[in-house]
Each structure stands twice: as C-alpha cells, then as structure tokens.
Amino acid sequence: VLQAVEYNMLDADLLEGDSMRDDAEEGEFAGEMHRLEEMLMQKNKQLEKRLAEANRQMDGKTEELKLLQSREKMLDTKVQEQAAQIKAMEVDISRASQGPAGSEGFGSDHLCALLEKASPSDGEVTATDSLASAVAQQRDRFRQANVALEGENAVLKKRIASYESDVRTLRSDNVKMYEKIKFLESYKPSLATQRSHAVDVEASIDSMPNIDRYKNAYEESINPFTVFNQRQRALRRDKMDMAERVLLEASQFFLGHAVARKFLFFYMVIMHFLVFSTLYNFTHTHEKCKKLGAQALDLPTQKAAQKLVQAAVAGKGMSVHANAAALEAAAEAAKLQASKVSKRVLLEAWQRPGDK
Hints:
Blueprint: H1 2-5, H2 12-20, H3 26-97, H4 106-115, H5 127-186, H6 194-207, H7 211-221, H8 224-239, H9 242-256, H10 258-314, H11 320-351
C-alpha cells in the first residue's frame, strides 16, 4: 500500500515487523495500523498545506500576470501615440521645408521662414536654428524612448511567457495533488477509524479553494469516453490508405491555418484565370485561322478560273478530248496550288499566336 501511495515513510523496523508478524501478534498489528493511519493523516495535512500554498502562489502569479498585461497594453498604446506624434512632426517639418515660396497661409509661410537659414551677413543666431535644433533633439529623445519602450516590451513579453508556463505547471501540480487526496479519501485502513478519517479528508477537500476546477480537470483526464474516442480516431486513421491520409492531413493543414487558406484561394483564382484566358485565346486564334484559310482558298480558285478560261480560249482549235484533258490538268494544278497556299497561311498563323 505504501509503495502504491509512494510515500516510503516507514522505517526498516516497521517493514521487517510487517514481513515477520503472524496471526498471534494482533495487538502489535493494530498498533502499527494506528501508526500508519496517523502517518497518512499527517501526510494528508502536509499535502493540504502544499496545495494551499500552491494556490496562493498561483493567485499571486495570476494577479502579477494581469498587472503586467495591463502595463504592456499601456506601454503599447504609449509607443503608438509617440510614433504617431513623431511621424506627424516629421511630415509637418518636411512639408514646411519643401513648400513653395509663394504659398499663401500663415502656417506654411511662418514655418518656412523659421526653417530658413540665416544669411552670412547676419551676425547673430536666429530663432530658426534654435527651433530646428529643438525639434531634432525632441525627435532624438522620442526615438530613444521608443527604443527603450520596445526593449521593455520584449522583457515583459518574456516574463509573461514565463508566468504562463508557471501557471500551467501549478495547475498540473494541483490536479496531481487532488488525485493524491482522492486516493487518501478512498483509502480504508480499518473499520474503527474509517469514519473519522473520511470525515476529516472530506472536510479538508471541501475547504480548498477552486476545488471544482481541479475536480473537472481530473475527471476529464480519467474519462473513459474521451480515451475511447481518441483511440477510435487513431485506429480509423491507421486504417486509411496513403491517399486518404495525405488528403486528410492536407485538409487539416489548409483549414487550420489562415495563411494557407488565403494561399489556396488565390492559387485557385489565378489558375482559373489562366485556364479561361488560354481557352479564349485559342478560340479567337482558331476563328482567325478559318478566315485566313478561306481567303487563301479564294485566291487560288480565282487563279484557277482564269487558267481554265485561258485554256478554253486556247483549246478552240483542239479536239474535245484534248480540251478536256487540258481543263482537268489546269484544275489539278489549281487544287495543288490552293492546298500549298492554305498550308503556308495556316503555318504563318500558328507561328504568330499573339496576332489578333
């Protein structure tokens, strides 16, 4: 029992007495059980004290974390305000120094007059130099303060991360302590002392702060339905083939990251745009090729008709068979020439895909 509780508080004599006792030493066994119960009660009180101390530390860390977060927000707001003021001052100075000489308005003329350097003939330092130096010094001070605030902000972020890790550690420690206390509550050494021991442990558990939160966390960690659900999901994932597993991992990755979702959206839009633009370009190129082919076929047809007329005129004194043979030869030559011209036109059209 002691090894299960992980206390190891008994001395060697008690352990040897437990191993060597027999049925005739019931009185000594009762005394040892009473001593064991007292030791368990004392250890229970120590655990309660440690739990209360851990709760106080966690509350203190939580309050300090809240103060640091509020201070960080205030410093961020102050840094943003100072950055906006610096930017506004730089813009005003640049606008005033680069403004036209003949611009109207008191503000621009006054700033230009103040920012102009004094002529070499002036023997005294004007107010322009003092104003420019004051503005430059103020800008340098603001930059130094901004750098210091950024460093302090980084330090505060590190401290907040450390406090958050401490809070998580304390929460897990509290859950473990609650588990040990539940074990002590369920421990039953003897029927005589069971009632007083159970009442003491229940009273101590009820007196602890935030006990419901740790109770819920402990019950959730030992919930068999949650463990069964996780095992079933792992088993179902192991039964999937490689393609389904890759698809599941990819869908979880793209659906779980905002940047991945945006990348997928823009990628699909760009791909659709490229596909539709390519189809549009091919459609217009095909229509143009048809027009060029028709024009190429019309030209050889006209030439063939002229040749046929010339052959008919030349074959008036020839026989009928000779005239027909001449006409057929002229028609074949016209077809061959038309096919060559159409091929050449189509080849030129395909070699110029950007021409519309």
